[in-house]
Amino acid sequence: MTVDLAVIAAYLLGMVALGWWGMRRATSKSDYLVAGRRLGPLMYAGTMAAVVLGGASTVGGIGLGYTYGISGAWLVVAIGVGILALHLFFAKRISRLRVFTVSEMLDLRYGGNSRVVSGLVMWGYTFMLTVPSTLAFSTIFSGLFELPRAVAIILGGSIVVLYSTMGGMWSVTMTDMAQFVIKTIGLILILTPVAIWSAGGFSGMREALDPSHFSPTAIGGETILTYFVIYSLGLLIGQDIWQRVFTGRDDRVARAGGIGAGVYCLVYGVCGALIGTAAAVLFPDLANPDEAFTVMVDATLPVGLAGLVIAAALSAVMSTASGALIACSAVTSTDLWPQVRRLFGRGAAPAEEGGDEVASNRVFTLVLGAATIGVALAVDNVVAALTLAYNLLVGGLLIAILGGLLWRRGTRAGALASMLAGSVAVIVTMALTGMLANEPIYVGLGTALVVYVAVSLLTRPTDPAVLTAWQSRLRGEDAPPAQARTEAGDAPAAAEAPASRED
User: Fold this and answer.
1) Per-residue pLDDT of the chain (503 residues; tens, 9 = 90+)
2) Which region ranges are annotated with the description Disordered (predicted)?
3) Nearest CA to 107 among 450, 502, 453?
């Protein structure tokens, strides 16, 4: 145990050291929020895979494998399919926009200012996504080292907040790359083959378990479909994912690196399901399937390797938590805080008048991180928090975002009405049917689609000047001067977008 603790302590200190290194590189808003848009394909792929494969994909994915066998892989497979779809069909255009947030993209496409609605929905998604990742620390630390739940959450959450606050996306990128390597070694190359061997190999597992554990559809067709609707579609539009797309050096890097990350996710999902299936052979009476990970590590791995695999699980949790936290900070500083200042008559705060933008972003990250830890201490349902986050994201924003990318006739009024109607429909349906029901996402999507099409057709088309500027940006033409200033940490990226005549 002492050796394992030393390995984990070295890992945590290494994350802080990388955060310190990132702090020295984060000298502008672009550095802090999107790593200066300078990542190459290998680093892009590693960090993209790290941010989408978190505690739910690791501890939760193994738990699903314990309960349902190989069909437990579908949750992570849906995540991989979402990453592949994003980079095959949309990443090229997204990368060329040269913005910081999804809400900025909506302003560019529709004209005017829609940030209050889209920013609030995206803020709720990114904040709630951070909470279950922070909660997962209690599962790992408490299960293996018998730490009190509150101590585990505060310890793990504080490390994430510390390195994220120091260097922003540069710190998150470097820690994510280290975490990607550790996850690959610890979970795929070590724990998966050891678990299968300990359970008697594939033949021994087949003899010991019910045949349903080896059916690809044992988890249920409706559940599989819902995974794809929530997670595959959610990954197309999440601020935490788009913010990683913005870090790529160019659209070719984003496409190639993203495809690699998507394939990696598919492999990761299968490995998690196999570990869980092996745990069902060795420990058939676990009260909580999520304990399968910690039990397998404790029972099958020698000292030292166990510490490495625990560090791999912590890597999965920390990468998602830090990615969501920096995304929430970006939405707060870029989309919401300027609106609050205008509401109180203070206007937007340019860097030369309002102080160092990097320093202000650090403050937002620190405050939001502390709030996340506080909420995580108050709730205990990881799945419910994650489901609420994705239901709000997909039901509220998917139609407006994809409509803007794919349908020229979509209007700002249609987008705003769609976001409001979809979000309300999701919340009301969840209140009526329960947090974990499948119906809310379908009701929200259906409502948003009908409202978007109807209102867009009933209102004047988007100003041709706005569409011209939008098409110019999608073609990757040079950003206008206001955008160039933004890259250096000046005015908001969408400030140069022509105002809509509907205003």
Assistant:
1) 678 778 888 888 888 888 888 887 788 888 888 888 888 999 999 999 988 887 778 888 999 999 999 999 999 999 999 999 999 998 888 888 888 888 888 888 998 777 778 888 888 888 888 887 787 777 677 666 677 888 888 888 898 899 888 888 888 888 888 889 988 998 999 999 999 999 999 999 999 999 999 999 999 998 899 899 888 988 888 888 888 898 988 888 999 999 999 999 999 999 999 999 999 999 998 888 888 988 898 888 887 888 888 888 888 788 888 888 998 998 998 888 888 888 776 655 544 333 467 888 889 999 999 999 998 888 766 666 677 778 888 998 999 999 998 999 999 999 999 999 999 999 999 999 987 788 899 999 999 999 999 999 999 999 999 999 998 888 877 554 444 444 444 333 333 333 333 33
2) 477-503
3) 502
Residue with tokens 């579908």: 74
State the virtual CA torsion across 340, 345, 351, 353 in degrees, nearest 10.
-150
User: What are the tokens at 492?
Assistant: 């908001």
pTM recorded for the entire structure: 0.81
